[in-house]
Q: What sequence folds into this?
């Protein structure tokens, strides 16, 4: 049977009218979260130069060599700094 010619019951039509917009909203919400997660440097006030008292990413517990961080997304400089900085123990 051709799916385009298939008749829907009232219940099936109502379910589709409820589910489809809900799914679209869910997908839109996730895309926004992904975009926000993609660049959180502003949130942590990341800068490419050392912070106060010479604090820099390469001396931080969250730094992942050669140029990544467990908190700040994207490529970072080992000489950079952000508010999430935690001294290596």
A:
């Amino acid at each position: 049977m051709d799916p385009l010619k298939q008749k829907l019951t009232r219940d099936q039509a109502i379910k589709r009218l409820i589910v489809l917009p809900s799914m679209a909203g869910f997908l839109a919400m996730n895309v926004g979260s992904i975009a926000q997660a993609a660049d959180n440097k502003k949130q942590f006030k990341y800068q490419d130069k050392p912070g106060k008292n010479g604090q820099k990413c390469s001396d931080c517990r969250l730094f992942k060599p050669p140029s990544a961080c467990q908190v700040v997304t994207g490529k970072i400089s080992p000489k950079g700094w952000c508010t999430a900085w935690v001294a290596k123990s």
